[in-house]
Input
Amino acid sequence: MTKSPPDHADTGRFGPHILARAEQLARLSESEAGLTCTYLSAAHRATAAQLREWMRDAGMVSSIDAVGNVVGRYAGSTSAAGTLIVGSHYDTVRNAGKYDGRLGILTAIAVVDDLNRARRRLPFAIEVIGFSEEEGVRFSSAYLGSSAVAGRFDPALLRRRDEAGETLDGALRAAGLDPAAIARLGRAAHDLLGYVEVHIEQGPVLLDEGLPLSIVTSIAGAARYAITVHGSAGHAGTVPMALRRDAATAAAEIVLFVERHCAATAGLVGTVGKITVPEGTVNVIPKLCELSLDIRAAEDEVLQAAAADISAGSAQIAARRGVTIEIHETSRSPSVSCSPQMQAKLEGAVARCGVQVRHLVSGAGHDAVMFHGITEIGMLFVRCGNGGISHSPLESISAEDADLAARVLRDFLLHFSTSP
Ligand SMILES: [Zn+2]
Output
């Protein structure tokens, strides 16, 4: 691993290079400390320019499109054999990790660079795409970049405003981009051979099992709810415990019910991430309590059943405690399956690289979701270090794992046309 012979496929060559570039990109940040790179900020535009340069250096024809995606095209040996997209995103959450999204772009650039140095063309074109926006931080709308390439961009979003009051349309124009051209970014489905994405796992499963990689079977469906509990206010000193209708204690029971219920169902996860007592005071029994609920499952039926069970459980809590509970669904996204053929091709590559084949459901959404139904999608997860923590500066990955991911991607591309 320490020596670097001139052979392009040598072990250990990709990993340190990918990690060094991730470090370099992480220095382009909106914040003094840590990494923040939200859509169309100065740091975001500088990141795009750097990625474009690296793509060019790797032998690709590179450009920045109307929605800010960085696109590098490595032509195939024949012009009519179609295009395989290898992508992920370069925007981040606030105070982010260095590898979420970027790992997939940097791995793809490293592999194309390797092909280019070996003067090797594949029978199809490769488009490496760094998507400009996936996290939804600035305009509260995720997948702006990938939705455009998938031909699913919603033009109504152009009127949406960020926290400073600027519209998406205005932000694009200020960055020198043409909002009207976004509608033309959608790729023709007949030209696409597939979409593949390498991404950090963002969870602890691979770390726990001592495995470096896994193939994603599906991306979980998710439903989000706003829950409001209405009780009665009262003096904290004068109302006996038995006569209270405390909204916060009812909410606490709902939180525990969600935890118990999701723990008892395989593949189901549920999180109450926000609890507030509006205008709460230390000496007043809470009249109102507001909760968020996020539930996810690989199968939509499981998600549907969980929503019904949580609703019924909450109704029982409400009846017993004399409070009323309202549950409003705020968003829902169906689960998305990765294509069996792409999974089989990734399995072949993982096995040929000497790694145990493991499959995982992705609990987090990814750009791949946008390409479902348009082309075959496949995803490769890479072990997340440090307890599996992500969306945090503590996010980590080893050079060995990054290297392995690149070698698997390289093998996958080399066998793409011939493997089943
Ligand atoms: Zn990501």
Notes: Residues 105 and 282 are 50 Å apart (CA to CA). The chain has a mean pLDDT of 95. The domain at 221-333 is CATH 3.30.70.360 (Alpha-Beta Plaits). The longest strand covers residues 221-230.
